Structure formats: C-alpha cells, structure tokens
Amino acid sequence: MSSLLEKIDHYRRLFADQVSRVKEARQVEELRQAFLGRKKGHLTLLFEEFKTLGPDEKKSAGRLLNELKTDIQNLLAELEQKLQSPARVKQLEDLTLPGRQLYWGSPHPITLFQREIERIFISMGFSVEEGPEIETDYYNFEALNFPPHHPARDSWDTLYINDKLLLRTHTSPVQIRVMEKKKPPIRIIIPGKVFRRETPDPTHLPMFYQVEGLVVDRGITFAHLKGTLEYFIKTLFGEKIKLRFRPSFFPFTEPSAEVDIECIVCGGQDAACRVCGGSGWKEILGAGMVDPQVFKNVNIDPEVYSGWAFGLGIDRTAMFAFQIPEIRHFYENDLRFLRQFNRR
Ligand code: DAH
Questions:
Q1: 196 Cα–ligand 1 center, Å
Q2: Which residues of the chain does CATH 3.30.930.10 include?
Q3: Atom of ligand 1 nearest to the CA of 311
Q4: What's the CA-to-centroid distance between 240 and ligand 1, angstroms?
Q5: Is 30 a residue whose pLDDT tops 70?
Q6: Dist. CA 39–CA 267, nearest whole Å
C-alpha cells in the first residue's frame, strides 16, 4: 500500500481532474459526497488512516491533508456559486413570471364614504366646513337652544373635559360657528368626528362620524329640505330607494323630522332582518327648519331669513350601504377588512 503522502497527492489530482468536468450544480454535490462524505468520502478515509500514523509521519501528512480538505471545500463552494447564479439571473429576467403583489394602502372606508357624500353636495353648490372637536358648552348646547339643565342634554351622553369644555356630541355646533362669521346665503356641509359616552357594541362606539348640513337664505322652505335630501339619498343609494320623513324633536329645529330609508337588505320583507329589525326602514338622519331662536343667537334676522339643517351618521349609513353588521370593524385596523375597500 502506498504511503499516505502519495495518496494525498493522488486524490489532489483526481479531484482536479473531476472538478474540471463539472457542468451542473448537481455534480458539485456528488463530488462533495465522494471526497468529503461522512462515512466513505476519500478524505474522510484518509483522515482515518492519518490517526494510525506515528508522530513523525503525522507532522508532514497532517498539514498536507488539511490543505487538501480546505482547497476542496473552497473550490466546491466557488463552483456552486458559479453554477447557480446564471440560473438565478435567468429567473429574474423571466418577464413571464407573475409580479409580486404589493399593497399600496388606500383610504379608509369611512373616508371613502365621506368623500362620496361631499362630492354629491359639492355638485349641488355646497361647500365643506370644519370645526373643533373640543367644544364649549355654549356652542355644543346653549347656542343651539338647549337651555341649561334642559333634559334634552341628557340624551347626548356628553363626555366632559371640565366644567366649560367637552368633546362635541354632534357636528351641529359648527353651524353656529359658521353663522357667526358668514352672512347668508349659506350652503355648507360639515363632516367630522363626534363623541358620546357609549359602551362599545355592534352599533355603538364612543367616537363616530357625522355630517351636518345647513342652508340659510331668503325664502327657504321645508320643500327645499325635502327636495335636497331626496336628491342626495337617491344619488347615494340609487333612484329606486324609498325614504320617509317622520316628525321628531330637536331643540335647534322647528319643525323637526327624522329620515328613514328603505331597508336595502330585506326591503321590509323579512320580519327577522338583522339590519332593520323587520321594520323595513332604517333611520339615518335628523333634520328640520332652523329654529328662529338659533338665528337670533347668531344675529341673523329670522324675519328675513329662513333655513334648514340636517345631521347624518356617516358610520351607520356606511354600515347600511356596505352591509356591515359591526361598527367596530371600521376601527380595528384588520387589513383583511380594510383591503376589501381598496378600489385601485
Ligand atoms: N345633531 C343631531 C344629533 O346628533 C342631528 C341633527 C338633527 C342635526 C337635526 C341637525 C338637525 O342639523 O337639523 O342627533
């Protein structure tokens, strides 16, 4: 049997010869197994043999054997890279592969719905106004004709910050702020957040959105209110939707009404309908003719001017339009929910 040194030399040549013939990545792995395989690899066997040598022989053979092992490992790694990268480049250049889907984000469904509402009113010559979310008692209640300690205040479940400041319970205070600054004619809508002391459940949250509307001019009548709201709702829900006006009460309008729209889920045909409770109608807004006292509070002469106003719940109307049974879905930031409204 030849000496270990000769064998090292032999396998160095053998490896050099075989490595020069390698054409694909699969062969690299075969070579690795043949030389470095755990049990029968050529070098593994040489290392076994090395253990049986005497100290003097070990000295020279050990260094050569280790060198050969490192050379083989390095060469195989290099070769592997070379053989793999052209395939990768080819893959990257393959323009027929489907692109990776990127999610770019999109406006929140409430924002989309609010914009739709704005678009309809803007097309009728309205402009869009805003007001503060932290309000004084005066704007949220008093100027809107709620006398101090009036029981009507209780139904608004107000979140107070201190004796004077509160989180607005509706968008109506912005009516006052605008009328203090602008003289009629006024044609505005006011979208925004409002706050009430509510325990969250499928149809209530302590924060939600409303849009207020206000028209003030000479000769404005209830017919204008009805005609405008009818046009608005039909543009939003389609020409065929039915609506009805029910008498109601708000301190800042006289007369007052609540407006219901026909249930688009059951059309009044399902006594157990989850959306309308079987009534066939869904209340979406309050409205009325601006109370003369409100005009007096902002120095507009009620003998000269008249006006109408409305306040609509954006979330609840959006729930109805998109048939969403849970208001909380809007605010949980679950992308599986939000992505359904991505219109890109
Ligand atoms: N602010 C009322 C609410 O939050 C809704 C409302 C009713 C607004 C009648 C109005 C109106 O402008 O005329 O319940």
A1: 14
A2: 109-341
A3: 8
A4: 26
A5: yes
A6: 78
Number of Cβ atoms within 10 Å of the Cβ of 176: 22
With a 6 Å cutoff on the Cβ, whether 158 touches ligand 1 is no
* Cβ(192) – ligand 1 distance below 6 Å: no
SS3 string, 204-224, reads: ECCEEEEEEEEEEECCCCHHH
Residue 8: phi, psi to the nearest 5?
A: -60, -45
Return the ligand 1 atom nearest residue 175 CA: 12
Q: What is the 3-state secondary structure (H, E, C) of 249-277?
A: EECCEEEEEEEEEECCCCCCCCCCCCCCC
Q: Tokens in use for 97?
A: 């592969």
192 token code pair: 């925004």
How far is ligand 1, taken at its centre, from the CA of residue 143, in Å? 14
Q: Which CATH superfamily is domain 109-341 in?
A: Bira Bifunctional Protein; Domain 2 (3.30.930.10)
145-156 pLDDT, tens digit per residue, is 998 878 777 767
Q: Which atom of ligand 1 is nearest to the CA of 286?
A: 7
pLDDT value at position 344?
56
Cα dihedral 64/65/67/70 (nearest 10) = 170
pTM for this model (two decimals): 0.71
Q: Which residue lies with its CA nearest to atom 3 of ligand 1?
A: 170
